[in-house]
């Protein structure tokens, strides 16, 4: 039995596809943001779509004080072949992802059925595989690759354990139930 | 392996394996030939392949004959155990760096304009280290033999026993020398001499005014070599009793996705239990009503029956008695399977509380699953944890 979480309708926007965004969150560059549906964004979430494209799957839950920011590289262009220029890379978040509070995410890709803990810092150009767990208070250095079905944690984050084969089922059920029980106050 | 029971919140439903361990319903496996559901510890593992967690290089055990333990192209930082990445200097020399603690191979001198030669330099550096250690061991061995064979030296050592005693303490002569290399013995003599000097001048080593150095990665010793990255493994699972496969992987050369060709989870063959409403019945709070919901998430028709546990087991594990168990047989029919409607049944059980802090409720369940070929049966025990209200 999952606990029912009630919210004030006046504090949240709700779209036709089931996206629930709090009015206290900061979302920029909505033209480049593509969300599939049935996502929840809590208070003080910062989502930077003005830097690069952001594509988000379904059943994403983003808790308080999370910043989602596209990652960057240094590169050369035809206009400036000698000078290094910052290029922002698109951010891709797959289905059934949960991001706990106060974490900063600058990854390029987050796979399906993953959960990211509290106070995490995922630096630029990281790739997180599917069915993986990142523990609380962990720091992923830049360019790390988290393989599928793995648990990472620590400072710097290091491979700790393997997740069981049924993590996808557990994560899907957890997030679908969370979305169903996130109900406005009557 | 990670266990979801530690993260899960109350109220919980856990399944008890024959070994006594408890797991979530999704984490249990089942063997249909043995007609039993089991935990991960009751299954045996067989390694299917080795893979690198950074580059994704896969070595399947059945295909390759020369298996390696470490990745040939990836390295680990010796300071913070983070995976190293390539670096290019302004002079266009390749090397490795750590993006967390800023360790570089440039300090060791392992850089080259040709990137493949960087690997050869690292391999040569390891060879030199191993050769130096091997030489040390050889020197020790020769030293021990010469001492044992030379009686004159033994007599001299007997006179100077206090010197050896300070080094060896209660160990025998040969054992003491085996454990120390020439360099170590020199170190210990220097330390001993220092202690003697400090004691003369009444200097205190544990002086509180002396501050320990903070972790400063830029001042780390530059003699550390990058460590080759160890490979991880993917495994197939087998039942320990009948040796039949429960989980098998498909042979793929891409380590980013692993698909299973055979998978037998308890979740796929048994109805899913969930705790509904929990509330007190009495004002005195001695009776508790729990509503348990059952979902048939499989594509099979099922007959389901409850069997209460014996009183001996109840007393052994200090379990509660249960009133109003539902009728013994449920049936999930084939009617709604094509339309993907989850079949659902619920029942209410009233519990009598013995301990208000932790409530535990158990019953054994036997399910008859009508497969198209066989009529099979699964037996397992279920424990329901509710917690304090």
TrEMBL record, chain A:
- Principal localization reads cytoplasm
GO CC terms of this entry:
dynactin complex
Q: Which compartment or compartments is the protein found in?
A: Cytoplasm, Cytoskeleton
Could you tell me which Gene3D superfamilies the record lists for this protein?
Answer: Hexapeptide repeat proteins (2.160.10.10)
Q: What is this protein called?
A: Dynactin subunit 5
Q: InterPro entries from the xrefs?
A: DCTN5, Trimer_LpxA-like_sf
Query: Which Pfam families does the record associate with it?
Result: DCTN5
The record's similarity note reads: Belongs to the dynactin subunits 5/6 family. Dynactin subunit 5 subfamily.
Which SUPFAM superfamilies does the record match to this protein? Trimeric LpxA-like enzymes
Task: Name the keywords, alphabetized.
Answer: Cytoplasm, Cytoskeleton
From TrEMBL, chain B:
Assembly and partners? Subunit of dynactin, a multiprotein complex part of a tripartite complex with dynein and a adapter, such as BICDL1, BICD2 or HOOK3. The dynactin complex is built around ACTR1A/ACTB filament and consists of an actin-related filament composed of a shoulder domain, a pointed end and a barbed end. Its length is defined by its flexible shoulder domain. The soulder is composed of 2 DCTN1 subunits, 4 DCTN2 and 2 DCTN3. The 4 DCNT2 (via N-terminus) bind the ACTR1A filament and act as molecular rulers to determine the length. The pointed end is important for binding dynein-dynactin cargo adapters.
Q: What is this protein called?
A: Dynactin subunit 4
For the keyword Repeat, the answer is: no
Q: Where in the cell is it found?
A: Cytoplasm, Cytoskeleton, Microtubule organizing center, Centrosome; Cytoplasm, Cytoskeleton, Stress fiber; Cytoplasm, Myofibril
Q: Does the keyword Acetylation apply?
A: yes
Q: Which organism is it from?
A: Paramecium tetraurelia
The record's listing under InterPro entries reads: DCTN4
Q: Which family does it belong to?
A: Belongs to the dynactin subunit 4 family.
- Taxonomically, the superkingdom here is Eukaryota
User: What GO cellular component entries does it have?
Assistant: centrosome; dynactin complex; stress fiber
Keyword line: Acetylation, Coiled coil, Cytoplasm, Cytoskeleton, Isopeptide bond, Phosphoprotein, Ubl conjugation
């Amino acid at each position: 039995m999952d606990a029912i979480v009630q919210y004030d309708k006046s504090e949240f926007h709700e779209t036709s596809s089931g996206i629930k965004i709090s009015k206290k969150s900061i979302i920029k560059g909505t033209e480049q943001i593509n969300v599939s549906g049935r996502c929840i964004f809590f208070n003080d979430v910062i989502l930077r779509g003005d830097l690069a494209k952001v594509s988000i799957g379904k059943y994403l839950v983003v808790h308080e004080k999370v910043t989602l920011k596209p990652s960057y590289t240094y590169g050369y262009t035809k206009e400036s072949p000698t000078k290094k220029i910052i290029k922002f890379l698109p951010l891709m978040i797959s289905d059934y992802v949960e991001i706990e509070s106060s974490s900063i995410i600058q990854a390029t890709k987050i796979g399906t059925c993953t959960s990211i803990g509290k106070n995490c810092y995922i630096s630029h150009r990281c790739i997180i595989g599917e069915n993986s767990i990142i523990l609380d208070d962990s720091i992923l250095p830049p360019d790390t690759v988290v393989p599928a079905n793995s648990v990472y944690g620590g400072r710097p984050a290091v491979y700790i354990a393997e997740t069981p084969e049924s993590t996808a089922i557990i994560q899907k059920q957890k997030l679908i139930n969370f979305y169903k029980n996130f109900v406005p106050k009557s | 392996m990670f266990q979801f029971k530690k993260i899960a919140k109350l109220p919980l439903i856990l399944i008890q394996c024959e070994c006594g361990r408890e797991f979530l319903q999704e984490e249990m496996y089942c063997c249909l030939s043995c007609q039993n559901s089991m935990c991960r510890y009751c299954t045996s593992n067989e390694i299917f392949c080795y893979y690198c967690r950074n580059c994704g290089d896969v070595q399947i055990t059945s295909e390759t004959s020369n298996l390696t333990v470490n990745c040939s192209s990836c390295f680990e930082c010796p300071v913070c155990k983070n995976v190293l990445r390539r670096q290019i200097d302004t002079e266009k020399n390749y090397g490795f760096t750590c993006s967390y603690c800023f360790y570089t191979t440039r300090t060791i001198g392992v850089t080259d304009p040709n990137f493949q030669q960087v690997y050869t330099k690292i391999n040569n550096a390891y060879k030199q280290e191993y050769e130096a250690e091997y030489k040390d061991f050889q020197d020790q061995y020769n030293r021990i033999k010469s001492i044992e064979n030379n009686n004159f030296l033994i007599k001299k050592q007997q006179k100077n026993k206090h010197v050896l005693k300070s080094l060896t303490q209660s160990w025998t002569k040969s054992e003491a020398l085996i454990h120390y290399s020439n360099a170590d013995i020199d170190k210990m003599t220097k330390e001993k001499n220092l202690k003697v000097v400090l004691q003369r001048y009444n200097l205190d080593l544990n002086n509180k005014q002396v501050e320990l150095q903070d972790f400063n990665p830029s001042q780390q010793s530059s003699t550390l070599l990058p460590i080759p990255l160890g490979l991880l493994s993917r495994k197939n699972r087998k039942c320990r009793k009948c040796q039949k496969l429960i989980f098998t992987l498909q042979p793929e050369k891409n380590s980013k996705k692993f698909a299973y060709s055979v998978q037998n989870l308890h979740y796929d063959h048994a109805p899913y239990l969930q705790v509904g409403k929990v509330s007190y019945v009495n004002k005195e709070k001695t009776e508790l009503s729990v509503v348990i919901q059952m979902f048939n998430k499989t594509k099979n028709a099922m007959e389901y029956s409850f069997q209460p546990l014996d009183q001996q087991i109840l007393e052994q594990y200090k379990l509660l008695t249960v009133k109003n168990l539902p009728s013994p047989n449920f049936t999930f029919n084939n009617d709604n399977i094509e339309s993907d409607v989850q079949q659902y049944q619920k029942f209410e059980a009233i519990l009598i509380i013995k301990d208000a802090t932790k409530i535990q409720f158990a019953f054994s369940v036997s399910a008859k699953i009508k497969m198209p070929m066989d009529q099979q049966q699964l037996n397992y025990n279920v424990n329901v944890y509710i917690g304090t209200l």
